[in-house]
């Protein structure tokens, strides 16, 4: 009967388009054969209690149905991925996470293709380079450059430049997709600080490694923080207020009343580890401001309105963007204008008229597609009424 539904919906859509009638403006979702091929293993199921098993069964049915409605679906779902799907609070979060997994697969495939293209020319280049007795292999040069970069980071800790702290207390509260995006930003933060000519001492506080969520994020994205060959951030389960004098701490928040006017080399600047692209139901709207008040430290905001003509974009910046602004202002002796213009993404400062019409239409179609898919799921398998599993037992990946 699914083919009949496909035919009816497609005919209805084409009729509306032909006569320019109001209504559905994107092509209807078509039922296909399920793309889901990797199901939870029995080993994983055995680690769950009865409530979690029942929930997992419902999520598997939901995931299989999603795989029949969209091509943007991951080719493989690991045991770790099923656990994360169990932790999602809503059907929309599970859909977003599945799309996130597929996007990561496509990105890895693209990177693999680029590496293979480079390897094709490698043998010929080796023959040419062997003629030069003083030739230094690129891999050896890159290793030397990384070693020099980490030496700069170690020197920054000894000299005591301005200190940057990322408050990681929010990581266990984020949605699975939000936590993944935040962990990726933390990884970028480490590498950008390492590659800068004047890196800052970097700390991750409230980094509770007893949390299953944080342990998984560390394994996937932040495994280098325990490497003996690198000078990575100092990671602590304690709060920043226990590590530094309160009078030296400045918590940065877009909701603060007072502007940050200068960067003091004796101060500690704290960023809340909250992703900027995902709305989080478990985190208050002014979480960073509330945290600063709770810890009884000063709270300030970047002087965005004083130097930038803001139009329709969001004033919530990524961790890497804020850190780049702070470093640029400090190294330039207080040039806020140049730092903000250089490091704030253009998408944040454009008006709605200046933004790409094609881009707006594309993202609007994605939103409507997701809305249509969720509506079909409600009709097909019922409303999303299952509750998030509070605790997941230890399992093997």
Automatic annotation (TrEMBL):
Signal peptide (residue range): 1-18
GO terms for MF: methyltransferase activity; tRNA binding
Any one annotated GO CC term: mitochondrion
Subcellular localization(s) per the UniProt record: Mitochondrion
One record GO biological process: positive regulation of mitochondrial translation
The SAM-dependent MTase TRM10-type domain, residue ranges: 149-351
InterPro entries: MT_TRM10-typ, MT_TRM10-typ_sf, Trm10_C_MTase_dom, tRNA_m1G_MeTrfase_euk
Key words, A-Z: Coiled coil, Methyltransferase, Mitochondrion, S-adenosyl-L-methionine, Signal, Transferase, Transit peptide, tRNA processing
PANTHER family: TRNA (GUANINE-9-) METHYLTRANSFERASE, TRNA METHYLTRANSFERASE 10 HOMOLOG C
Protein name in the entry: RNA (guanine-9-)-methyltransferase domain-containing protein 1
